[in-house]
Design goal:
- The complex is a heterodimer of chains A (229) and B (440).
- Chain A has 229 residues and is of the alpha/beta class.
- Chain A is built from four helices and nine strands.
- Chain A is globular and about 65 Å long.
- The termini of chain A are far apart.
- About 10% of the residues of chain A have low confidence.
- Chain B has 440 residues and is of the alpha+beta class.
- Helices cover 47% and strands 15% of the residues of chain B.
- Classes of the chains: A alpha/beta (229), B alpha+beta (440).
- At the A-B interface, strand 3, strand 4 and helix 4 of A face helix 2, helix 9, strand 10, strand 11 and strand 12 of B.
Chain lengths: 229, 440
């Protein structure tokens, strides 16, 4: 009769559970820093294609654009319906054409370009710079978002010939994100001084700031403070 | 020529004068009118008539403006970038400082965007929505009062400035009574409002409702029949509907050209569909029409305020979800709003769980599911849009404010070129630009 020895009873015996390179000793993921001092960590927003039907007026808008625009299939990258809003991801080279159809077609009539803004998806999208156009149809009281994505060296055709209001807004997107709008009449900085270097709202551009001392304790600048993950 | 007064120097661009005021004669004397028909004038950025730090580069032929180029950015404070380093609740304290004459609208636009991202629009309590409407309309009046005050001053009616600011102070007192601050309140928070309206403020609002209509009549008897006011505003800085839409101009300027586009009616939010009010329009497309529209809008806002007061029922002012609602019961102390003493006593002395909960929500904040939304609201100057992007974390990933001042200022060349220099002031003022909002 042999007595089963407990594992690990002998010196130099292999451990029952070899340490996983992912989990570490205590089943921790990543760096194991739970203090929140691990720096800014950004999650990847998952953007998935939405299936038909989109619901509401979104199907009508989609079909009307498909009918009015011959190059539709090549121009649409993705359709996302989220939180009651329709986003059409457009091939950058086609954005001005799509905008013109969106404005002029009888069944679309997006007369007003409410807003143009940039977003920098650093490290989550190879074409990290996105430009987002919010179109408003006053006739049908609808809103649609167009979105294009380019890399740092890419250019986006300017929509100023369709929507003159985009003039300053594209200048702001250029100033803050460095998106180059081809065909813009006067693509210069607008909020920052003309001789400024860099594009301040890019994610790899530091916020800046100085530490503040109060009664002996030092509070670091906002971009170096701890953040919860 | 007196030294230090309209000093001149030669440059490659031509002769440059430094003009500090009252010395126009010395400039015109020094220029040969036959060989130098055109001069370029830098109006601003420090000029009392340009509403803050707006700079206009004007090319003049005599008194006629041949080219106008607005230059902005002097008040850029990086609000959008700063938001990315604060949690979602702290964001209200930043956005409120953008357009400083309409702080509650900035907060409302931002909070509605965060609430849409969280998917909690339906959980905002009735009372919170009514308070939001009530305060936004008060703020609309105070903003329009500053417009009538400053525009009056710029067109020669100095007394109008005193009256406009006097009545605005009344509204700011109401704000102070409620939020602890006259401006930059951070009163609207994601999930509701920071704290309830005290009875004393309700009484003040009721008093204001009887006080303001009389004052409006005074303004109109001061201005409307005034021949100088009429001459300076009628037929000046005309921009029709086509011009407005292509340049993205919204708000009173668009409505003064005849299109009744008001987001409170066309795409309602905060329960505006339950209020009875008209959307005033004018057909003249000029400064005069914008004056009429704004005066009528003040009256409509008074109607909405009265209805909101009647709708105000006791109830919670914050969302019931304890993972979003700020746990503290706030109270107004001598230095503004802060945690109430009862709450401090509770978390420090009685309940460890409350302390932990308070600490986590205040320091860490709540997480917002990844995605993006755009919310547009009717600001006193037009459509204020907030485009908010979340990556699922406790901080905004990106917030963009489509500020109406920024977009509307693009209309200055269209209105000023070909007109007289003095009309640039009237036209610019009629857009009601606030540079804090424009430059953010």
């Amino acid at each position: 009769m042999t007595v089963e020895e407990p594992i690990g009873a002998q010196l130099d015996a292999p451990a029952q559970n070899p340490a996983s390179p992912d989990k570490g000793m205590f089943g921790i993921h990543g760096t194991g820093d739970v203090s929140g001092f691990g720096g800014l960590v950004r999650r990847r927003p998952a953007v998935a294609d939405s299936p038909r039907p989109f619901g509401g007026y979104f199907d009508e808008v989609y079909d009307a654009l498909e009918e009015a625009y011959p190059g539709f299939a090549d121009a649409i990258e993705k359709v996302v319906v989220d939180r009651g809003e329709l986003t059409l991801h457009i091939v950058p080279e086609r954005i001005a054409e799509v905008a013109r159809i969106m404005r002029d077609d009888e069944s679309l009539r997006f007369e007003l370009c409410s807003s143009v803004s940039g977003v920098d998806y650093l490290a989550t999208d190879a074409r990290r710079l996105h430009v987002v156009y919010q179109l408003t149809s006053m006739t049908y009281r609808r809103r649609v978002r167009l979105e294009v994505a380019v890399g740092v060296d890419g250019t986006v055709p300017s929509v100023t010939s369709v929507y003159p209001t985009a003039d300053w807004q594209e200048r702001e997107a250029y100033d803050m994100f460095g998106v180059v709008f081809a065909g813009h009449p006067n693509l210069t900085r607008i909020l920052m001084p003309d001789d400024w270097e860099g594009h301040p709202q890019r994610k790899d551009y530091p916020l800046g700031g100085v530490p503040v001392e109060y009664k002996g304790a030092v509070i670091p600048p906002p971009d170096q403070r701890r953040v919860y993950q | 020529m007196t030294q230090g007064y309209a000093t001149e120097r030669e440059t490659t661009e031509g002769r440059v004068f430094t003009v500090t005021g009252g010395d126009w004669d010395s400039v015109t004397e020094a220029i040969d009118p036959l060989s130098n028909e055109k001069i370029v004038v830098n109006m601003g950025p420090q000029h009392p008539s340009t509403h803050g730090v707006l700079r206009l580069v004007l090319e003049l032929e005599g008194e006629t403006v041949t080219e106008a180029r607005p230059v902005i950015g002097y008040l850029h404070t990086g609000i959008e970038k700063n938001l990315e380093y604060r949690n979602w609740t702290q964001g209200t304290t930043f956005v409120t400082r953008a357009d400083y004459l309409a702080p509650l609208f900035n907060e409302a636009g931002y909070c509605l965007a965060v609430e849409k991202l969280l998917g909690i629009e339906d959980q905002i309590t009735e009372r919170a929505n009514t308070i939001r409407v009530l305060f936004m309309e008060l703020n609309r009046i105070s903003s329009h009062l500053v417009w009538i005050a400053t525009t009056g001053m710029e067109l020669g009616a100095i007394s109008m400035m005193l009256y406009g600011f006097r009545e605005r102070e009344y509204i700011l007192d109401i704000f102070e009574e409620t939020s602890g601050l006259r401006m930059n309140h951070a009163y609207f928070r994601p999930g509701g409002v920071a704290q309830d309206v005290p009875e004393s403020a309700i009484k003040k609002i009721r008093d204001f409702l009887t006080y303001m209509p009389k004052k409006l009549k005074e303004y109109e008897s001061l201005l409307s029949g005034q021949i100088i006011w009429q001459e300076r505003t009628q037929g000046i800085a005309v921009l029709d509907v086509t011009g407005c839409l292509s340049l993205g101009i919204t708000g009173p300027v668009l409505r003064a050209s005849g299109l009744a586009w008001d987001l409170r009616k066309t795409m309602p939010y905060c329960g505006y569909e339950n209020y009875e009010f008209a959307v005033p329009t004018a057909q003249t497309s000029d400064v005069w029409g914008r004056y009429l529209v704004r005066m009528a809008e003040i009256r409509e806002s008074l109607k909405i305020i009265e209805q909101a007061l009647d709708k105000l029922r006791p109830g919670p002012i914050m969302i019931a979800d304890k993972k979003i609602a700020w746990p503290a019961q706030l109270a107004i102390g001598t230095d503004g709003m802060g945690n109430s003493l009862e709450h401090v006593a509770k978390i420090m002395g009685q309940s460890m769980e409350s302390l932990i909960h308070h600490f986590k929500l205040v320091t860490e904040g709540f997480r917002v599911p990844a995605g993006q939304v755009y919310v547009g609201i009717e600001h006193p100057r037009g459509e204020l849009g907030v485009h908010a992007v979340s990556d699922g974390g406790t901080h905004p990933y990106r917030v963009h404010m489509r500020d109406p001042s920024f977009v509307n200022l693009q209309a200055i060349p269209a209105m000023a070129e070909g007109a007289l220099l003095a009309d640039v002031i009237a036209g610019g003022a009629s857009l009601d630009p606030v540079m804090g909002g424009c430059d953010r």
